Amino acid sequence: MHKLKKSKFLIIIPSYNEFYNLKKFVKKVKKIAPVCILDDCSNDQTAQWLKKNKINYIRNKKNLGYEKNLINGIKKLKKYCDYLVTFDGDGQHKYSDLLKIMKIKKNYDIIICNRIKKNRLMEILISFIFKLLYGLKDPLSGFKVYKTNILKNHILKKVENLFLIDLLFGLLKKKKSINFPINTNKRLGNPKVGNTINVNLKELRILFKIIYFKFTRN
């Protein structure tokens, strides 16, 4: 990783074998704010391309998985910015939405970018239940903005492998949060979150946890 300087924003992009997607949008995104790629031990051309183009990155020594990769990056990088933006590496999120987000960040601790079109039926149900119980949609969106002074280490330690839903539980109480609706592009390549059965089981666990948290920790 090149030496990062403190900035207002830092955009972190978790990536595993996303070389073809990254090279399409990362250079453009860098024009908005500093970027750091969280390379989860990719075995494609990602590392070589990042070095060649002098793009900041953290490369894991072994594959950690989506959640641990993101949490590892947040822990290491939150000191370099006032606002940390998580932006998926699969090409689904739009540059134009990133520009819009920068204009509304100052009044909120958390911004969840609500995907108008979800990938799976279970995501629609989770979004509906989360809105009903907590007033916010699409907690599984990978496109979020966090004010870094709320990202305390004791909260980050409690995050499980459930698409960072536990992180929201640790942050939402008494924090000013908002949804921002976004459209998404169609991703290229295979999804990196696992096969359909495993993902549905994981999201079913998330749904139960959302309900359990609401009625046991009020």
Give a concise summary:
With 218 residues, the chain is α/β, with parallel strands linked by helices. It is built from eight helices and seven strands; from the N terminus they run E-H-E-H-E-H-E-H-E-H-E-H-H-E-H.
What can you tell me about this protein's structure?
- The structure is a single chain.
- The chain has 218 residues and is α/β, with parallel strands linked by helices.
- The protein has a single domain (7-216), classed as Alpha-Beta Complex (Spore Coat Polysaccharide Biosynthesis Protein SpsA, Chain A).
- The chain has helices spanning 19-29, 46-52, 66-77, 95-101, 121-134, 153-156, 165-172, 196-216; strands at residues 7-15, 35-39, 57-59, 81-86, 110-115, 144-147, 177-182.
- Strands 3-2-1-4-6-5-7 form a seven-stranded mixed β-sheet, sandwiched between helices.
- The longest helix has 21 residues, at 196-216.
- The chain is globular, with a radius of gyration of 16 Å.
Give the tags.
alpha/beta; globular; 218 residues; Spore Coat Polysaccharide Biosynthesis Protein SpsA, Chain A
